[in-house]
Design brief:
By secondary structure, the protein is α/β, with parallel strands linked by helices. The chain has twelve helices and ten strands. The protein folds into three domains: 54 residues; 223 residues, SGNH hydrolase (Rossmann fold, 3-Layer(aba) Sandwich); 72 residues, no CATH class. InterPro entries: DUF459 (IPR007407), SGNH_hydro_sf (IPR036514).
Length: 424
């Protein structure tokens, strides 16, 4: 008899929990399995009780936040790596590729965009609003010592973020990694990155750089709108612009990572369309960082060659996520563009003028024989210095910097010293 009572209480408790948190459950199934579920509130018979249940769930969530202070936008202290849990790139669960074959047997008609070619030197602040504590000149970020970074995105950014937080800390910079797995821009009812970013920037006005990496969870039909259709593309572009406009309102510079090539060809074709949208929107709003460095001549590869010709594992078994080394390589693509200004904020103009003057000098000097310096195997750059695919912009920068006059007073700057190590 006692067992029956216990089972009865368990069933009743489960039903009540599902009733109160029905919206969260629906959002979870929509985001995880990419199926459209009609909201229960559309039924007038259940609407009053379901709205009451949603209000109770909202109140409970507010209490949880106040008690445990686990709001993802709570930026009182920097992100710590130990707080990061359940990383899909470390221990992947069901892969996106397997879900792709289960839930999308019909391949949508998609016209692939031309190759992404974003010149990161062409950035202009379209609304003429000055950036906070930074300048973006000739493909380099000149930033003040007190500049703070906000990292948002999905599980790919979780891995990249760990590497960025560590490296930026060594430069005396602070970064907040609020990336959340299984998120994107498509299902805003499950998680809204625009709203989360807005709250984060309002809570911490010192943030000057927003770093984004997302999209792997986004290429799906939504609310009857087919992925890749003109209407879907218009809606998705609007969501990208929403994030960028929030950054502009707060005078924050945006860095957006290209989603790395996916092993599953069907899913990768969809991701290519999203990457083209990101690159197009970032042409005048920030820096788009291409990630072909992890590929073999543009094709997916789990391994790439380091400077010693040895294969380095950069992708997880699911063909989507990154290994620790892969995350490190991508984080370095941003780190190598950062020049830290050691002095007070009003001196940022001086360093930018110095950088421009040095650039002019390098264009007028005759070519010198490059000095090849050996990279240590454990260096940040060793895994991608000799990658089959090299960013065109990086090649141009390397060729130009190899011509720098060795007697120039600017070669003593840490940035130029680091660049000399990459000349071949």
């Amino acid at each position: 008899m006692q067992l029956i009572r216990l089972l009865f209480l368990g069933v009743i408790s489960l039903v009540l929990v599902c009733f109160v948190f029905h919206r969260s459950l629906i959002d979870y199934f929509m985001q995880t399995y990419h199926i459209n579920i009609k909201p229960l509130e559309t039924n007038s018979l259940f609407r009053p009780s379901l709205e009451t249940a949603s209000a109770v769930a909202s109140t409970l969530d507010k209490w949880r936040t106040q008690i445990f202070e686990q709001d993802s936008t709570q930026l009182q202290s920097p992100y710590t790596e130990s707080a990061q849990g359940n990383l899909l790139h470390e221990k992947p669960s069901e892969s996106f590729a397997s879900r792709e074959s289960q839930t999308h047997t019909e391949k949508p008609s998609i016209t692939l965009p031309p190759a992404i070619g974003n010149d990161d030197r062409q950035f202009t602040q379209s609304n003429n609003q000055p950036l906070k504590n930074i300048q973006f000149i000739d493909g380099k970020l000149l930033i003040n010592k007190d500049t703070e970074f906000l990292l948002i995105g999905d599980s790919l950014m979780q891995g990249i973020g760990i590497m960025l937080v560590r490296a930026l800390r060594t430069k005396g910079l602070r970064a907040y990694n609020i990336a959340k797995q299984n998120t994107g821009l498509t299902f805003t009812s499950f998680f809204n990155w625009a709203r989360t970013t807005q709250k984060a920037l309002e809570k911490n006005p010192k943030i000057s750089v927003l770093v984004v990496c997302l999209g792997a969870n986004d290429p799906w039909d939504v609310k009857g709108i087919k992925f890749g259709s003109e209407k879907w593309n218009t809606l998705y572009n609007a969501k990208i612009e929403e994030v960028l406009s929030i950054a502009r309102e707060h005078a924050v510079f945006v860095v957006w990572f290209q989603v790395p090539t996916i092993k599953n060809e069907q899913l990768n074709n969809k991701i290519a369309l999203l990457n083209a949208m990101y690159a197009k929107n970032l042409e005048s709003h920030g820096l788009f960082i291409k990630t072909e460095i992890l590929t073999n001549e543009g094709k997916f590869s789990s391994y790439i060659k380091n400077t010693e010709g040895k294969s380095v594992l950069v992708r997880a078994q699911d063909g989507i996520h990154l290994t620790t080394k892969g995350s490190e390589i991508l984080s370095n693509l941003l780190l190598e563009k950062i020049i830290v200004q050691e002095h007070s904020p009003h001196n940022i103009t001086n360093i930018s003028e110095q950088y421009n003057q040095n650039t002019i000098q390098t264009k007028t000097l005759e070519s010198h024989n490059p000095i090849k310096e050996h990279l240590q195997p454990n260096s940040h750059l060793d895994s991608h210095a000799n990658s089959p695919v090299i960013n065109d912009t990086a090649n141009k920068e390397s060729n130009r910097e190899s011509k720098t006059d060795k007697t120039s007073p600017f070669t003593s700057h840490p940035f130029f010293s680091a660049q000399q190590a990459k000349t071949q």
